[in-house]
Protein backbone atom coordinates (compact mmCIF):
# COMPACT_ATOMS: atom_id res chain seq x y z
CA UNK A 1 0.00 0.00 0.00
CA UNK A 2 1.01 3.57 -0.53
CA UNK A 3 0.74 6.24 2.10
CA UNK A 4 1.32 9.96 2.10
CA UNK A 5 3.31 11.15 5.06
CA UNK A 6 2.41 14.76 5.67
CA UNK A 7 4.76 16.97 7.65
CA UNK A 8 2.70 19.71 9.30
CA UNK A 9 3.92 23.29 9.43
CA UNK A 10 4.96 25.02 12.63
CA UNK A 11 5.26 28.67 13.66
CA UNK A 12 8.96 28.39 12.83
CA UNK A 13 8.47 26.87 9.37
CA UNK A 14 5.80 29.45 8.59
CA UNK A 15 8.20 32.18 9.69
CA UNK A 16 10.60 30.79 7.08
CA UNK A 17 13.20 29.70 9.63
CA UNK A 18 15.37 27.07 7.93
CA UNK A 19 16.01 23.85 9.86
CA UNK A 20 19.32 23.56 11.70
CA UNK A 21 22.14 21.84 9.88
CA UNK A 22 21.85 18.95 12.31
CA UNK A 23 18.14 18.49 11.75
CA UNK A 24 18.64 18.77 8.02
CA UNK A 25 21.37 16.12 7.98
CA UNK A 26 19.35 13.80 10.20
CA UNK A 27 16.44 14.07 7.78
CA UNK A 28 18.75 13.44 4.81
CA UNK A 29 19.97 10.24 6.42
CA UNK A 30 16.45 9.13 7.28
CA UNK A 31 15.41 9.67 3.67
CA UNK A 32 18.43 7.68 2.50
CA UNK A 33 17.47 4.83 4.80
CA UNK A 34 13.94 4.88 3.37
CA UNK A 35 15.35 4.80 -0.17
CA UNK A 36 17.69 1.91 0.67
CA UNK A 37 14.77 -0.04 2.09
CA UNK A 38 12.78 0.47 -1.11
CA UNK A 39 10.12 2.35 0.85
CA UNK A 40 10.54 5.89 -0.48
CA UNK A 41 8.53 6.67 -3.61
CA UNK A 42 8.60 10.47 -3.65
CA UNK A 43 8.89 13.45 -1.38
CA UNK A 44 9.44 17.17 -1.21
CA UNK A 45 9.49 20.05 1.21
CA UNK A 46 7.17 22.97 0.54
CA UNK A 47 7.74 26.71 0.82
CA UNK A 48 5.78 28.48 3.52
CA UNK A 49 2.23 29.64 3.01
CA UNK A 50 3.31 33.23 2.36
CA UNK A 51 4.14 31.89 -1.11
CA UNK A 52 0.92 29.91 -1.45
CA UNK A 53 -2.40 30.62 -3.08
CA UNK A 54 -5.80 29.17 -2.38
CA UNK A 55 -8.56 28.80 -4.88
CA UNK A 56 -12.06 28.66 -3.45
CA UNK A 57 -14.42 26.81 -5.74
CA UNK A 58 -18.12 27.40 -5.42
CA UNK A 59 -20.27 26.36 -8.34
CA UNK A 60 -18.91 28.28 -11.31
CA UNK A 61 -17.10 30.91 -9.27
CA UNK A 62 -13.39 30.82 -8.48
CA UNK A 63 -11.98 33.08 -5.78
CA UNK A 64 -8.24 33.35 -5.25
CA UNK A 65 -6.89 33.97 -1.75
CA UNK A 66 -3.22 34.87 -1.33
CA UNK A 67 -1.15 33.47 1.54
CA UNK A 68 0.06 33.55 4.24
CA UNK A 69 -2.63 31.58 6.00
CA UNK A 70 -3.41 31.33 9.69
CA UNK A 71 -3.42 28.12 11.74
CA UNK A 72 0.19 27.04 11.07
CA UNK A 73 -0.45 23.59 12.49
CA UNK A 74 -3.12 22.86 9.90
CA UNK A 75 -0.80 23.69 7.01
CA UNK A 76 1.42 21.26 5.15
CA UNK A 77 5.17 21.87 5.19
CA UNK A 78 6.30 18.79 3.30
CA UNK A 79 5.28 15.35 2.19
CA UNK A 80 6.64 11.95 1.31
CA UNK A 81 5.06 8.99 -0.40
CA UNK A 82 5.98 5.60 0.99
CA UNK A 83 5.20 2.13 -0.26
CA UNK A 84 4.77 -0.22 2.67
CA UNK A 85 3.11 -3.51 3.45
CA UNK A 86 0.60 -2.10 5.92
CA UNK A 87 -0.09 0.76 8.34
CA UNK A 88 1.95 -0.97 11.04
CA UNK A 89 5.03 -0.76 8.86
CA UNK A 90 4.31 2.87 8.00
CA UNK A 91 4.05 3.60 11.73
CA UNK A 92 7.29 1.76 12.48
CA UNK A 93 9.09 3.94 9.92
CA UNK A 94 7.39 7.12 11.10
CA UNK A 95 8.46 6.42 14.67
CA UNK A 96 12.11 6.62 13.63
CA UNK A 97 11.77 9.87 11.74
CA UNK A 98 13.89 12.67 13.15
CA UNK A 99 12.11 15.88 14.08
CA UNK A 100 12.33 18.13 11.03
CA UNK A 101 11.42 21.22 13.07
CA UNK A 102 12.71 22.83 16.22
CA UNK A 103 10.29 22.12 19.05
CA UNK A 104 7.00 20.29 18.71
CA UNK A 105 5.93 19.10 15.28
CA UNK A 106 3.37 16.75 13.81
CA UNK A 107 3.27 14.28 11.00
CA UNK A 108 0.23 12.56 9.60
CA UNK A 109 0.03 9.28 7.67
CA UNK A 110 -2.75 8.88 5.13
CA UNK A 111 -3.24 5.75 3.03
CA UNK A 112 -3.85 6.28 -0.69
CA UNK A 113 -7.23 5.57 -2.18
CA UNK A 114 -6.07 3.00 -4.71
CA UNK A 115 -7.77 1.95 -7.92
CA UNK A 116 -9.48 -1.00 -6.28
CA UNK A 117 -10.92 1.25 -3.54
CA UNK A 118 -12.28 3.55 -6.23
CA UNK A 119 -13.86 0.67 -8.08
CA UNK A 120 -15.53 -0.48 -4.87
CA UNK A 121 -16.60 2.99 -3.75
CA UNK A 122 -18.07 4.05 -7.06
CA UNK A 123 -19.08 0.57 -8.16
CA UNK A 124 -17.70 1.41 -11.56
CA UNK A 125 -19.22 -0.89 -14.10
CA UNK A 126 -17.67 -1.04 -17.51
CA UNK A 127 -14.75 1.31 -16.85
CA UNK A 128 -12.51 -1.46 -18.10
CA UNK A 129 -13.88 -1.08 -21.59
CA UNK A 130 -11.19 0.49 -23.69
CA UNK A 131 -11.84 2.47 -26.85
CA UNK A 132 -12.80 -0.06 -29.48
CA UNK A 133 -11.48 -0.35 -32.97
CA UNK A 134 -7.82 -0.30 -32.02
CA UNK A 135 -5.54 -2.69 -33.79
CA UNK A 136 -3.24 -5.25 -32.31
CA UNK A 137 -5.26 -7.52 -30.09
CA UNK A 138 -2.13 -9.53 -29.54
CA UNK A 139 -0.92 -8.31 -26.19
CA UNK A 140 2.21 -6.75 -27.59
CA UNK A 141 4.38 -5.59 -24.73
CA UNK B 1 12.05 16.79 3.58
CA UNK B 2 13.21 18.67 0.61
CA UNK B 3 14.05 16.81 -2.50
CA UNK B 4 12.17 14.63 -4.92
CA UNK B 5 12.95 10.97 -4.98
CA UNK B 6 14.48 11.36 -8.40
CA UNK B 7 17.86 12.06 -6.85
CA UNK B 8 17.55 9.61 -3.98
CA UNK B 9 19.71 6.99 -5.64
CA UNK B 10 22.40 9.55 -6.31
CA UNK B 11 22.99 9.93 -2.61
CA UNK B 12 24.43 6.49 -2.11
CA UNK B 13 28.03 6.79 -1.06
CA UNK B 14 30.77 4.23 -0.50
CA UNK B 15 29.60 1.69 2.02
CA UNK B 16 31.94 2.55 4.86
CA UNK B 17 30.99 6.20 4.66
CA UNK B 18 27.33 5.32 4.47
CA UNK B 19 27.61 3.18 7.55
CA UNK B 20 29.38 5.89 9.54
CA UNK B 21 26.72 8.36 8.47
CA UNK B 22 23.97 6.00 9.61
CA UNK B 23 25.61 5.62 12.98
CA UNK B 24 25.78 9.39 13.34
CA UNK B 25 22.17 9.66 12.19
CA UNK B 26 21.04 7.22 14.80
CA UNK B 27 22.85 9.23 17.45
CA UNK B 28 21.15 12.40 16.26
CA UNK B 29 17.66 10.99 16.29
CA UNK B 30 15.79 12.33 19.25
CA UNK B 31 15.42 9.81 21.99
CA UNK B 32 12.11 11.12 23.30
CA UNK B 33 9.92 8.33 24.63
CA UNK B 34 7.04 7.46 22.34
CA UNK B 35 3.72 7.89 24.07
CA UNK B 36 0.30 7.34 22.60
CA UNK B 37 -2.62 9.61 23.38
CA UNK B 38 -4.41 6.45 24.38
CA UNK B 39 -2.51 3.62 26.02
CA UNK B 40 -1.85 0.99 23.32
CA UNK B 41 -3.25 -2.46 23.86
CA UNK B 42 -0.90 -5.46 24.14
CA UNK B 43 -1.84 -6.57 20.62
CA UNK B 44 -1.08 -3.10 19.26
CA UNK B 45 2.29 -3.20 20.98
CA UNK B 46 3.21 -6.60 19.58
CA UNK B 47 2.07 -5.52 16.11
CA UNK B 48 4.30 -2.46 16.39
CA UNK B 49 7.21 -4.64 17.50
CA UNK B 50 6.66 -7.08 14.66
CA UNK B 51 6.51 -4.23 12.14
CA UNK B 52 9.80 -2.89 13.47
CA UNK B 53 11.27 -6.35 13.25
CA UNK B 54 10.11 -6.69 9.64
CA UNK B 55 12.03 -3.56 8.75
CA UNK B 56 15.20 -4.84 10.44
CA UNK B 57 14.98 -8.54 9.66
CA UNK B 58 16.88 -8.75 6.37
CA UNK B 59 19.69 -6.52 7.57
CA UNK B 60 19.86 -8.51 10.78
CA UNK B 61 20.15 -11.81 8.91
CA UNK B 62 22.71 -10.27 6.55
CA UNK B 63 24.93 -9.05 9.39
CA UNK B 64 24.64 -12.30 11.32
CA UNK B 65 25.29 -14.51 8.30
CA UNK B 66 28.66 -12.83 7.90
CA UNK B 67 29.58 -13.85 11.43
CA UNK B 68 28.22 -17.36 11.60
CA UNK B 69 28.62 -18.19 7.86
CA UNK B 70 25.27 -19.94 7.94
CA UNK B 71 22.03 -18.41 6.62
CA UNK B 72 19.90 -20.87 8.54
CA UNK B 73 21.53 -20.08 11.87
CA UNK B 74 21.43 -16.35 11.09
CA UNK B 75 17.69 -16.60 10.45
CA UNK B 76 17.24 -18.49 13.71
CA UNK B 77 19.27 -15.93 15.68
CA UNK B 78 17.23 -13.08 14.19
CA UNK B 79 14.05 -14.87 15.19
CA UNK B 80 15.41 -15.31 18.73
CA UNK B 81 16.03 -11.56 18.85
CA UNK B 82 12.39 -10.95 17.95
CA UNK B 83 11.26 -13.21 20.77
CA UNK B 84 13.45 -11.23 23.17
CA UNK B 85 12.05 -7.95 21.85
CA UNK B 86 8.48 -9.16 22.32
CA UNK B 87 9.36 -9.95 25.94
CA UNK B 88 11.33 -6.79 26.61
CA UNK B 89 9.88 -3.88 24.62
CA UNK B 90 6.33 -3.85 26.02
CA UNK B 91 7.96 -2.88 29.35
CA UNK B 92 10.88 -0.76 28.18
CA UNK B 93 9.34 0.74 25.05
CA UNK B 94 10.78 0.42 21.54
CA UNK B 95 14.41 1.51 21.80
CA UNK B 96 15.60 4.58 19.91
CA UNK B 97 17.75 2.34 17.70
CA UNK B 98 15.77 -0.88 17.41
CA UNK B 99 18.09 -2.35 14.76
CA UNK B 100 21.14 -1.96 16.99
CA UNK B 101 19.24 -3.44 19.93
CA UNK B 102 18.17 -6.50 17.95
CA UNK B 103 21.67 -6.94 16.55
CA UNK B 104 23.25 -6.79 20.01
CA UNK B 105 20.87 -9.41 21.35
CA UNK B 106 21.37 -11.65 18.32
CA UNK B 107 25.14 -11.27 18.53
CA UNK B 108 25.05 -12.39 22.13
CA UNK B 109 23.10 -15.46 21.03
CA UNK B 110 25.65 -16.04 18.28
CA UNK B 111 28.44 -16.00 20.86
CA UNK B 112 26.47 -18.50 22.93
CA UNK B 113 26.16 -20.72 19.89
CA UNK B 114 29.88 -20.50 19.16
CA UNK B 115 30.61 -21.29 22.79
CA UNK B 116 28.36 -24.35 22.69
CA UNK B 117 30.17 -25.61 19.61
CA UNK B 118 33.54 -25.21 21.26
CA UNK B 119 32.34 -26.96 24.41
CA UNK B 120 31.42 -29.93 22.31
CA UNK B 121 34.80 -29.95 20.67
CA UNK B 122 36.93 -29.67 23.81
CA UNK B 123 37.75 -32.16 26.57
CA UNK B 124 35.75 -31.83 29.73
CA UNK B 125 38.64 -30.65 31.91
CA UNK B 126 39.26 -27.69 29.66
CA UNK B 127 35.72 -26.53 29.49
CA UNK B 128 35.65 -24.13 32.38
CA UNK B 129 38.80 -22.26 31.34
CA UNK B 130 37.99 -22.25 27.62
CA UNK B 131 34.53 -20.98 28.28
CA UNK B 132 35.81 -17.68 29.61
CA UNK B 133 38.49 -17.31 26.96
CA UNK B 134 36.18 -18.33 24.19
CA UNK B 135 33.55 -15.89 25.30
CA UNK B 136 35.95 -12.95 25.28
CA UNK B 137 37.58 -14.01 22.05
CA UNK B 138 34.29 -14.78 20.39
CA UNK B 139 32.81 -11.39 21.19
CA UNK B 140 35.83 -9.73 19.64
CA UNK B 141 35.71 -12.03 16.65
CA UNK B 142 32.04 -11.26 16.16
CA UNK B 143 32.69 -7.53 16.39
CA UNK B 144 35.62 -7.78 14.01
CA UNK B 145 33.59 -9.74 11.48
CA UNK B 146 30.89 -7.11 11.63
CA UNK B 147 33.36 -4.30 11.04
CA UNK B 148 35.05 -6.00 8.10
CA UNK B 149 34.48 -3.92 5.04
CA UNK B 150 32.64 -6.46 2.94
CA UNK B 151 30.32 -3.80 1.58
CA UNK B 152 26.67 -3.17 2.36
CA UNK B 153 25.39 -6.14 4.39
CA UNK B 154 22.04 -6.43 2.69
CA UNK B 155 23.60 -6.20 -0.76
CA UNK B 156 26.01 -8.97 0.25
CA UNK B 157 23.08 -11.13 1.31
CA UNK B 158 21.26 -10.47 -1.98
CA UNK B 159 24.34 -11.46 -4.00
CA UNK B 160 24.76 -14.61 -1.90
CA UNK B 161 21.10 -15.65 -2.18
CA UNK B 162 21.35 -15.04 -5.94
CA UNK B 163 24.68 -16.83 -6.36
CA UNK B 164 24.96 -18.63 -9.71
CA UNK B 165 25.80 -21.92 -7.94
CA UNK B 166 22.10 -22.07 -7.07
CA UNK B 167 19.34 -22.86 -9.56
CA UNK B 168 17.14 -19.95 -10.64
CA UNK B 169 14.16 -21.26 -8.72
CA UNK B 170 16.26 -21.80 -5.59
CA UNK B 171 17.65 -18.26 -5.85
CA UNK B 172 14.16 -16.81 -6.18
CA UNK B 173 12.77 -18.76 -3.21
CA UNK B 174 15.75 -18.00 -0.97
CA UNK B 175 15.75 -14.29 -1.87
CA UNK B 176 12.04 -14.00 -1.11
CA UNK B 177 12.57 -15.81 2.18
CA UNK B 178 15.64 -14.06 3.61
CA UNK B 179 15.54 -10.67 1.88
CA UNK B 180 11.81 -10.29 1.28
CA UNK B 181 10.75 -11.87 4.55
CA UNK B 182 7.99 -13.95 2.96
CA UNK B 183 6.99 -17.17 4.68
CA UNK B 184 7.53 -20.48 2.88
CA UNK B 185 3.74 -20.76 2.69
CA UNK B 186 3.48 -17.38 0.93
CA UNK B 187 6.26 -18.33 -1.47
CA UNK B 188 4.62 -21.69 -2.18
CA UNK B 189 1.28 -20.06 -2.99
CA UNK B 190 2.95 -17.47 -5.18
CA UNK B 191 4.86 -20.08 -7.18
CA UNK B 192 1.95 -22.52 -7.20
CA UNK B 193 4.14 -25.11 -5.48
CA UNK B 194 3.62 -27.14 -2.33
CA UNK B 195 4.97 -25.75 0.92
CA UNK B 196 7.22 -28.77 1.63
CA UNK B 197 8.72 -28.43 -1.86
CA UNK B 198 9.57 -24.77 -1.31
CA UNK B 199 10.85 -25.43 2.23
CA UNK B 200 13.11 -28.15 0.89
CA UNK B 201 14.32 -25.93 -1.95
CA UNK B 202 15.30 -23.27 0.60
CA UNK B 203 17.01 -25.74 2.94
CA UNK B 204 19.04 -27.17 0.05
CA UNK B 205 20.03 -23.69 -1.10
CA UNK B 206 21.23 -22.77 2.38
CA UNK B 207 23.28 -25.98 2.58
CA UNK B 208 24.81 -25.36 -0.83
CA UNK B 209 25.87 -21.88 0.28
CA UNK B 210 27.38 -23.26 3.51
CA UNK B 211 29.24 -26.04 1.66
CA UNK B 212 30.66 -23.55 -0.83
CA UNK B 213 31.83 -21.38 2.07
CA UNK B 214 30.44 -18.19 0.57
CA UNK B 215 31.46 -15.11 2.55
CA UNK B 216 28.35 -12.92 2.14
CA UNK B 217 30.49 -10.10 0.77
CA UNK B 218 29.52 -7.82 -2.08
CA UNK B 219 31.58 -8.92 -5.09
CA UNK B 220 33.96 -6.31 -6.46
CA UNK B 221 35.21 -5.17 -9.84
CA UNK B 222 34.91 -7.70 -12.64
CA UNK B 223 33.39 -10.18 -10.20
CA UNK B 224 30.54 -7.76 -9.52
CA UNK B 225 29.82 -7.34 -13.22
CA UNK B 226 29.87 -11.12 -13.67
CA UNK B 227 27.53 -11.80 -10.75
CA UNK B 228 25.03 -8.99 -11.28
CA UNK B 229 23.09 -10.61 -14.14
CA UNK B 230 22.08 -13.53 -11.91
CA UNK B 231 20.71 -11.05 -9.35
CA UNK B 232 18.75 -9.07 -11.94
CA UNK B 233 17.48 -12.30 -13.49
CA UNK B 234 16.07 -13.47 -10.16
CA UNK B 235 14.34 -10.18 -9.42
CA UNK B 236 12.74 -10.13 -12.86
CA UNK B 237 11.79 -13.80 -12.53
CA UNK B 238 9.96 -12.93 -9.29
CA UNK B 239 8.28 -9.98 -10.98
CA UNK B 240 7.17 -12.07 -13.92
CA UNK B 241 5.80 -14.83 -11.71
CA UNK B 242 3.35 -12.23 -10.50
CA UNK B 243 2.92 -10.35 -13.76
CA UNK B 244 2.31 -13.34 -15.97
CA UNK B 245 -0.08 -14.91 -13.48
CA UNK B 246 -2.59 -16.99 -15.35
CA UNK B 247 -3.78 -19.06 -12.42
CA UNK B 248 -3.73 -19.22 -8.66
CA UNK B 249 -4.46 -16.65 -5.99
CA UNK B 250 -4.16 -13.42 -7.95
CA UNK B 251 -3.68 -11.15 -4.95
CA UNK B 252 -0.76 -13.16 -3.61
CA UNK B 253 0.81 -13.09 -7.04
CA UNK B 254 0.25 -9.37 -7.43
CA UNK B 255 2.19 -8.93 -4.20
CA UNK B 256 5.03 -10.79 -5.89
CA UNK B 257 5.26 -7.99 -8.48
CA UNK B 258 5.36 -5.37 -5.77
CA UNK B 259 7.98 -7.27 -3.79
CA UNK B 260 10.17 -7.63 -6.87
CA UNK B 261 9.79 -3.91 -7.54
CA UNK B 262 10.79 -3.18 -3.95
CA UNK B 263 13.89 -5.39 -4.39
CA UNK B 264 14.61 -3.46 -7.58
CA UNK B 265 14.30 -0.16 -5.75
CA UNK B 266 16.59 -1.42 -2.99
CA UNK B 267 19.16 -2.57 -5.49
CA UNK B 268 18.99 0.67 -7.51
CA UNK B 269 19.46 2.74 -4.33
CA UNK B 270 22.65 0.78 -3.68
CA UNK B 271 23.94 0.64 -7.26
CA UNK B 272 22.91 3.99 -8.73
CA UNK B 273 25.71 3.86 -11.32
CA UNK B 274 24.66 0.57 -12.91
CA UNK B 275 22.57 1.10 -16.04
CA UNK B 276 21.10 -2.41 -16.20
CA UNK B 277 19.99 -2.23 -12.54
CA UNK B 278 18.24 1.05 -13.32
CA UNK B 279 16.88 -0.46 -16.54
CA UNK B 280 15.34 -3.37 -14.68
CA UNK B 281 13.79 -0.99 -12.14
CA UNK B 282 12.41 1.18 -14.96
CA UNK B 283 10.97 -1.89 -16.68
CA UNK B 284 9.24 -3.08 -13.51
CA UNK B 285 7.91 0.39 -12.62
CA UNK B 286 6.38 0.85 -16.07
CA UNK B 287 4.95 -2.65 -16.28
CA UNK B 288 3.59 -2.39 -12.73
CA UNK B 289 1.83 0.84 -13.71
CA UNK B 290 -0.52 -1.28 -15.84
CA UNK B 291 -1.31 -3.93 -13.24
CA UNK B 292 -4.80 -2.59 -12.59
CA UNK B 293 -5.62 -2.02 -16.23
CA UNK B 294 -4.72 -5.53 -17.35
CA UNK B 295 -7.81 -7.29 -16.10
CA UNK B 296 -11.44 -6.49 -16.65
CA UNK B 297 -14.02 -6.88 -13.85
CA UNK B 298 -14.68 -10.43 -15.03
CA UNK B 299 -10.99 -11.27 -14.61
CA UNK B 300 -10.35 -11.46 -18.34
CA UNK B 301 -6.96 -10.34 -19.60
CA UNK B 302 -7.02 -7.00 -21.43
CA UNK B 303 -4.20 -6.65 -23.99
CA UNK B 304 -1.94 -3.63 -23.81
CA UNK B 305 -3.33 -1.87 -26.87
CA UNK B 306 -6.88 -2.16 -25.55
CA UNK B 307 -6.29 -1.08 -21.97
CA UNK B 308 -7.97 2.02 -20.58
CA UNK B 309 -4.85 4.16 -20.28
CA UNK B 310 -6.53 6.42 -17.74
CA UNK B 311 -6.16 3.49 -15.35
CA UNK B 312 -2.40 3.34 -15.70
CA UNK B 313 -0.63 4.44 -12.54
CA UNK B 314 1.03 7.70 -13.55
CA UNK B 315 3.24 7.85 -10.45
CA UNK B 316 4.75 4.46 -11.27
CA UNK B 317 5.23 5.53 -14.91
CA UNK B 318 7.04 8.69 -13.80
CA UNK B 319 9.35 6.68 -11.54
CA UNK B 320 10.00 4.28 -14.42
CA UNK B 321 10.74 7.00 -16.96
CA UNK B 322 12.98 8.67 -14.40
CA UNK B 323 14.96 5.47 -13.78
CA UNK B 324 15.23 4.96 -17.55
CA UNK B 325 16.53 8.51 -18.00
CA UNK B 326 19.17 7.85 -15.35
CA UNK B 327 20.17 4.63 -17.11
CA UNK B 328 20.43 6.44 -20.45
CA UNK B 329 22.54 9.15 -18.84
CA UNK B 330 25.02 6.41 -17.95
CA UNK B 331 25.03 4.54 -21.26
CA UNK B 332 24.46 7.38 -23.70
CA UNK B 333 21.47 7.77 -26.03
CA UNK B 334 22.44 5.09 -28.56
CA UNK B 335 20.32 1.95 -28.22
CA UNK B 336 23.27 -0.06 -29.55
CA UNK B 337 25.03 0.64 -26.21
CA UNK B 338 22.14 -0.64 -24.11
CA UNK B 339 21.81 -3.94 -22.31
CA UNK B 340 18.69 -6.10 -22.38
CA UNK B 341 16.94 -4.46 -19.40
CA UNK B 342 17.46 -0.90 -20.60
CA UNK B 343 16.16 -1.97 -24.02
CA UNK B 344 13.08 -3.62 -22.52
CA UNK B 345 12.49 -0.58 -20.33
CA UNK B 346 12.75 1.64 -23.42
CA UNK B 347 10.17 -0.58 -25.13
CA UNK B 348 7.82 -0.36 -22.18
CA UNK B 349 8.38 3.42 -22.12
CA UNK B 350 7.22 3.72 -25.76
CA UNK B 351 3.83 2.41 -24.70
CA UNK B 352 3.78 4.43 -21.48
CA UNK B 353 4.40 7.66 -23.39
CA UNK B 354 1.57 7.08 -25.87
CA UNK B 355 -1.60 8.70 -24.55
CA UNK B 356 -3.69 6.63 -26.96
CA UNK B 357 -2.80 3.26 -28.46
CA UNK B 358 -2.94 4.93 -31.90
CA UNK B 359 -0.13 7.30 -30.83
CA UNK B 360 2.30 4.42 -30.24
CA UNK B 361 5.68 4.94 -31.90
CA UNK B 362 5.83 1.55 -33.64
CA UNK B 363 8.90 2.29 -35.81
CA UNK B 364 10.83 3.07 -32.61
CA UNK B 365 9.55 -0.16 -31.02
CA UNK B 366 10.56 -2.12 -34.12
CA UNK B 367 14.08 -0.63 -33.97
CA UNK B 368 14.37 -1.45 -30.25
CA UNK B 369 13.34 -5.05 -30.92
CA UNK B 370 16.04 -5.24 -33.60
CA UNK B 371 18.55 -4.26 -30.89
CA UNK B 372 17.06 -6.57 -28.28
CA UNK B 373 17.31 -9.45 -30.73
CA UNK B 374 21.03 -8.71 -31.07
CA UNK B 375 21.81 -8.71 -27.31
CA UNK B 376 19.22 -11.17 -25.99
CA UNK B 377 18.01 -13.40 -28.80
CA UNK B 378 15.00 -15.58 -28.12
CA UNK B 379 12.12 -16.93 -30.18
CA UNK B 380 9.66 -14.80 -28.22
CA UNK B 381 11.68 -11.67 -28.95
CA UNK B 382 11.65 -12.67 -32.63
CA UNK B 383 7.87 -13.04 -32.53
CA UNK B 384 7.35 -9.69 -30.80
CA UNK B 385 9.77 -8.10 -33.24
CA UNK B 386 7.69 -9.39 -36.15
CA UNK B 387 4.53 -7.97 -34.56
CA UNK B 388 6.23 -4.60 -34.00
CA UNK B 389 7.41 -4.50 -37.62
CA UNK B 390 3.91 -5.37 -38.82
CA UNK B 391 2.50 -2.46 -36.83
CA UNK B 392 5.20 -0.11 -38.07
CA UNK B 393 5.59 -1.18 -41.70
CA UNK B 394 2.55 -3.28 -42.55
CA UNK B 395 1.49 -6.94 -42.45
CA UNK B 396 3.89 -8.07 -45.19
CA UNK B 397 6.90 -6.93 -43.13
CA UNK B 398 5.55 -8.95 -40.23
CA UNK B 399 4.99 -12.04 -42.37
CA UNK B 400 8.51 -11.81 -43.79
CA UNK B 401 10.05 -11.74 -40.29
CA UNK B 402 7.83 -14.59 -39.07
CA UNK B 403 9.10 -16.71 -41.94
CA UNK B 404 12.65 -15.98 -40.83
CA UNK B 405 11.98 -17.57 -37.44
CA UNK B 406 13.41 -20.89 -38.44
CA UNK B 407 15.37 -23.87 -37.22
CA UNK B 408 15.38 -24.69 -33.52
CA UNK B 409 13.48 -21.47 -32.74
CA UNK B 410 10.53 -22.64 -34.76
CA UNK B 411 10.50 -25.87 -32.76
CA UNK B 412 10.41 -23.91 -29.49
CA UNK B 413 7.38 -22.00 -30.73
CA UNK B 414 5.68 -25.00 -32.35
CA UNK B 415 2.95 -25.27 -29.70
CA UNK B 416 2.91 -21.55 -28.85
CA UNK B 417 -0.51 -20.11 -29.72
CA UNK B 418 0.67 -16.50 -30.15
CA UNK B 419 2.75 -17.50 -33.19
CA UNK B 420 -0.15 -18.68 -35.41
CA UNK B 421 -2.30 -15.93 -33.85
CA UNK B 422 0.19 -13.31 -35.05
CA UNK B 423 0.43 -14.88 -38.49
CA UNK B 424 -3.37 -14.98 -38.65
CA UNK B 425 -3.52 -11.31 -37.75
CA UNK B 426 -0.97 -10.34 -40.41
CA UNK B 427 -2.77 -12.41 -43.08
CA UNK B 428 -6.10 -10.92 -42.06
CA UNK B 429 -4.74 -7.42 -42.43
CA UNK B 430 -3.21 -8.37 -45.78
CA UNK B 431 -6.66 -9.48 -46.95
CA UNK B 432 -5.68 -13.18 -47.19
CA UNK B 433 -8.75 -14.28 -45.25
CA UNK B 434 -8.86 -18.01 -45.93
CA UNK B 435 -5.25 -18.42 -44.81
CA UNK B 436 -5.92 -16.17 -41.81
CA UNK B 437 -8.84 -18.33 -40.73
CA UNK B 438 -6.70 -21.47 -40.83
CA UNK B 439 -4.04 -19.77 -38.66
CA UNK B 440 -6.60 -18.55 -36.10
CA UNK B 441 -8.05 -22.05 -35.90
CA UNK B 442 -4.59 -23.53 -35.40
CA UNK B 443 -3.93 -20.95 -32.68
CA UNK B 444 -7.27 -21.74 -30.98
CA UNK B 445 -6.29 -25.41 -30.86
CA UNK B 446 -3.12 -24.46 -28.98
CA UNK B 447 -4.75 -21.92 -26.62
CA UNK B 448 -4.12 -22.54 -22.92
CA UNK B 449 -7.48 -21.42 -21.63
CA UNK B 450 -11.07 -21.13 -22.76
CA UNK B 451 -11.09 -17.32 -22.89
CA UNK B 452 -8.11 -17.20 -25.21
CA UNK B 453 -9.61 -19.97 -27.32
CA UNK B 454 -12.97 -18.20 -27.61
CA UNK B 455 -11.22 -15.00 -28.64
CA UNK B 456 -9.20 -16.74 -31.37
CA UNK B 457 -12.23 -18.60 -32.70
CA UNK B 458 -14.14 -15.32 -32.92
CA UNK B 459 -11.31 -13.94 -35.03
CA UNK B 460 -11.50 -17.04 -37.25
CA UNK B 461 -15.24 -16.43 -37.67
CA UNK B 462 -14.60 -12.81 -38.56
CA UNK B 463 -12.59 -14.06 -41.56
CA UNK B 464 -15.74 -15.73 -42.89
CA UNK B 465 -17.78 -12.60 -42.34
CA UNK B 466 -15.45 -10.63 -44.56
CA UNK B 467 -15.00 -13.33 -47.16
- Oligomerization: heterodimer
Order of helices and strands of chain A: EHHEEEEHEH
The percent of residues in helical segments of chain B reads over 70%
Task: Estimate what percentage of residues of chain B fall within beta strands.
Answer: under 5%
Shape type of chain A: flat
Looking across the biggest beta sheet of chain A, what order are the strands in? Answer: 2-5-1-6
Percent of residues in β-strands of chain A: 25-35%
| Structural class by SSE content of chain A | alpha+beta
Give the low-confidence spans of chain B. 1-33
Number of helical regions of chain B: 21
Q: From the alpha-carbon coordinates, what is the Rg of chain A to the nearest angstrom?
A: 20 Å
Kindly state the number of beta strands of chain B.
0
Enumerate the spans of chain A where pLDDT stays under 50 for 5 or more consecutive residues.
124-141
Predict the CATH topology of chain A. Answer: Alpha-Beta Plaits
Largest interface in this structure: A-B, 59 and 73 residues
Describe this protein's structure:
The complex is a heterodimer of chains A (141) and B (467). Chain A is an alpha+beta fold and 141 residues long. Chain A has a single domain (2-122), classed as Dimeric alpha+beta barrel (Alpha-Beta Plaits), CATH 3.30.70.1060. Chain A is built from four helices and six strands, in the order βααββββαβα. Chain A has helices at residues 11-14, 21-36, 87-95, 115-122; strands spanning 2-8, 40-45, 53-58, 61-66, 76-83, 107-111. The two termini of chain A are 26 Å apart. Chain B has 467 residues and is mainly alpha-helical. Among the domains of chain B are: 42-123; 154-271, no CATH class; 275-374. Chain B contains 21 helices and no strands. Chain B has helices spanning 15-28, 42-68, 71-92, 98-121, 127-147, 153-161, 168-179, 184-190, 195-212, 221-243, 250-270, 275-288, 314-331, 340-353, 362-375, 379-393, 395-404, 408-412, 418-429, 433-446, 450-466. In chain B, helix 7 packs across helix 10, helix 12 runs parallel beside helix 14 and helix 20 (433-446) packs antiparallel against helix 21. The longest helix of chain B is centred in the N-terminal third of the chain and has 27 residues, at 42-68. The model of chain B is unreliable at 1-33 (pLDDT under 50). The interface between A and B is large, with 59 and 73 residues.
Amino acid sequence: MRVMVIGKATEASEAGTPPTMEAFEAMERFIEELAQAGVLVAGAGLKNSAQAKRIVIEGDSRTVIDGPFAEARELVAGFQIWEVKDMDEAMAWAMRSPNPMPGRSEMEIRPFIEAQDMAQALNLEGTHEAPSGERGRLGVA
Amino acid sequence: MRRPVASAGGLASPDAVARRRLVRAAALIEKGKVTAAETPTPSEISRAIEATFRIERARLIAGLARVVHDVDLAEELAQDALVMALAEWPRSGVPARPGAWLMTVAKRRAVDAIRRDRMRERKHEEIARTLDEATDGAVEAVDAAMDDDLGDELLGLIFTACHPILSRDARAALTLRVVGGLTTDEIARAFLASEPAIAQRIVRAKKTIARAGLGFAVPRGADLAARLPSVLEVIYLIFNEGYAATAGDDLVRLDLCLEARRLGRMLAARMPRDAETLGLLALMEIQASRLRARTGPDGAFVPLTEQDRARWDQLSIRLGLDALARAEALTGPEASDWGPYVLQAALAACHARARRAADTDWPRIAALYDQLRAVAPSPVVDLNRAIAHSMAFGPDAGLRLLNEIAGPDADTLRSYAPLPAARGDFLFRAGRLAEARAEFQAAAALARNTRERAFLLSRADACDGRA
